[in-house]
Design brief:
This is Diguanylate cyclase/phosphodiesterase. By secondary structure, the protein is an alpha/beta fold. The protein is built from twelve helices and nine strands. α5 packs parallel to α6. The structure holds ligand C2E and calcium ion (3 copies).
Length: 275
């Protein structure tokens, strides 16, 4: 190959180089993003199927960089993890979300995504305790969302941390359920009290019988374990109808509300609007 296309290696090097440079530039700017107030939270509502009322919001992190524009969370969160920034960022997210929820007119829950780093390295139970104390948010209004893949690496530590968090009265949801490979074992080992079905199963719900079967099976599992099931990524009325018929407990998705600055939901949360 090298003989036929002598330049291939050179081109390859150049593109790897520029990818690497791009990444380095992102990393450098991410280190300053907190200080420069470039990080923010948007909120997406979840709705109780039975009452059709909003039951709470999920906080989702955004980075709007002056040089790179909006950077996708999946990208910059991975970066933050790899450069040792995630504990600091995760602590900021918790504090910001709890302070926000403490101001709401109604006692809705706020769900915060938590990175494996915060469980494996940090002392998440203490960070949460301190955050609840300083913001005045009652523990039962906070939920953390964890993905199953993160828990396997340091099993004992993860179990211990989550048990301490649960003992505080904070809810623990298993996120992206169905995408990992140890779902059932993890479910039994960890003190979850809510299950979120990954949105990849919802996408083809109306067209594909496999997805429907999986969603039904997870809902059955939830009923058996007495864990409410939230379905995320609901984009169409048709999907919502199917999920209602299947007995989903709560739904979340673009159909009912996009992740937005909390001011977009002032009709629900703002004391000045709702009182
Ligand atoms: P996730 O926790 O599974 O969050 C749900 C993602 O689905 C969000 O993407 C949300 O914007 C998107 N979504 C919600 N409804 C719909 C819908 O109807 N259709 C479609 N196509 N998408 C929908 P987002 O905001 O880009 O976040 C991506 C991931 O980044 C999150 O997945 C979560 O794993 C991570 N993440 C976001 N914020 C934080 C954070 O504060 N801390 C940590 N550790 N991770 C976070
Ligand atoms: Ca989540
Ligand atoms: Ca999810
Ligand atoms: Ca996800």
């Amino acid at each position: 190959i090298k003989k036929e296309r002598p330049n291939t290696l050179g081109f390859y090097d150049a593109s790897v180089q520029s990818e690497w440079q791009k990444r380095r530039a992102l990393e450098q700017d991410l280190r300053l993003a907190l200080q420069h107030r470039e990080l923010s939270l948007v909120y997406q509502p979840m709705f109780c199927m039975r009452s059709s009322l909003c039951s709470g919001f999920e906080a989702l992190l955004r980075w709007n960089s002056p040089t790179h524009g909006p950077v996708a969370p999946d990208l910059f969160i991975g970066l933050a993890e790899s450069i040792g920034l995630m504990e600091e960022v995760g602590t900021w997210v918790l504090r910001e979300a709890c302070a926000e929820a403490a101001r709401w007119a109604v006692p809705l829950t706020v769900a915060v995504n938590v990175s494996p780093i915060q469980i494996q390295q940090g002392d998440l139970a203490s960070v949460i305790t301190e955050t609840l104390n300083t913001t005045g948010l009652p523990a039962n209004r906070l939920e953390i969302e964890v993905t199953e893949s993160m828990l396997i690496r340091n099993f004992d530590r993860a179990v211990d941390t989550l048990q301490r968090i649960k003992a505080l009265g904070v809810g623990i949801s298993i996120d992206d359920f169905g995408t990992g490979y140890s779902s059932l074992a993890t479910l039994r080992a960890f003190p979850f009290n809510k299950l979120k079905i990954d949105r990849s199963f919802v996408r083809d719900l109306a067209e594909e019988s496999e997805s429907l079967a999986i969603v039904n099976a997870v809902l059955g599992l939830g009923r058996g374990l007495r864990l409410p099931v939230v379905v995320e990524g609901v984009e169409t009325e048709r999907q919502a109808d199917i999920l209602r018929d299947c007995g989903a407990d709560a739904i979340q998705g673009y159909l009912f509300g996009r992740p937005s600055p909390i001011s977009a939901y002032s009709n629900i949360t703002d004391p000045r609007v709702t009182s």
